[in-house]
What does this fold into?
Amino acid sequence: MERCLQTISLLCAAAVGSPAQVFTTLANFDATNGYYPVAPILQATDGNFYGMTEFGGPGSGTVFRMSPTGVLTMINSLLPPGGAEPFAGLIEDPNGKLYGTTNVGGANKGGTIFDLTLNGALTTVYAFAGPRGANSVAPLLLAADGNFYGTTEFGGVSCPPNGAGCGIVFQLTPSGTLTVRHEFSGPDGQWPAAGLIQAANGNLYGTTMGGGANGDGTVFEITPAGALTTLHSFSGTDGSSPLAALVQANNGSLYGTTSTGGTNGAGTIFEITAAGVFSTFHTFAYSDGAAPFAGLIQATDGNLYGTTSSGGANQYYGTVFEITLSGSLTTLHSFGSPDGAYPEAELIQGTDGMLYGTTFKGGTSDFGTVFSLSVGLGPFVETLPTTGKVAQTIGILGTNLTGVSAVHFHGVSAVFTVMSPSLITAVVPSGATSGKVEVATQAGLLASNVAFRVIP
It folds into this structure.
């Protein structure tokens, strides 16, 4: 493995915006530090942001760290023997280690699963091999049972039209043992390009970009043990080719996007209940965006936020949008190439309240950017993980946490330790029930962005 550490201080330029809505280009990729970021970034427990580029650097893609002020450092240059061309974002486990997937490379040339320290030391955990999955373009999910779950776009049983396999759902233990939980065959979906989410009922939910009753993709539910149910088959008019993970909103419904289809052929936003009741939530019309490759997030104001890879006021370059749970969509930013172009990755909300994302191209070198967008939302804290048992120690990520005086789990006081300005650890207290975690800081009370679920 080749490691390359290169720190580059990048241009930070604020775009026009109201006091409550300010767009800022934080970093520009220049090929030496990577290019074409298609994956979302991650805010880690050290307070920095981490992400990957599909290409560039001395190898075939890079892993980078970016400070909150936009100073970007390449911490690993990926080489095919250890995996290359990553499409998916990173996740962080409770021990502070990052995990990710690569689309190609590895011992069997079918992509890999790897772990990574925050300093960039990479270890290949698993190399995919045809029948047991190939070409993962989705992030991993760390589920409540302590195992990782994910998908591969190909592999598994032979599948038309190319016979390369329709893709799989897999489980990976922390020790690196992979078990195939489901092999898609076509009628139940094929080519899962999106990651999985775990809903409040404990089951996993995902999408396939093809297959199903009409060949336009599916939404499915699968238990951790591998029992799969197809909840919806797209038909084109209600959307086609979903590429991104779902999100479960605080009303219990699941929301997602399709990259094409709908009445205008520009993609859709849809809502589906855990029981499979489906409705088209919004149909894009090019002027308000087109081809949403990325999924949605629910921010602390309860609204959903996302990106389209094309369309918008400048026709081709894509948008950032907000949509309420009643279906009212507002375009927040239309890209124009100098500030980025073709955003293909999900947004994240940083603990400072701002939205962060990447663009596939555009910027000063036309190799992509990292940006932030302030929409007037305040700071919060985020638990890592979002589920846990009584007496379990969890991490709480935030901003300016040095002066924390109290931590409560749904009103029950907890023992805590301040680890750094961006991280505290806390023990889930006896008597705690599921609900928001609150942290008393010098600046005021901060609540968690989602309810912490106490499990037996």
Q: What stands out?
A: Confidence is low (pLDDT under 50) at residues 1-19.
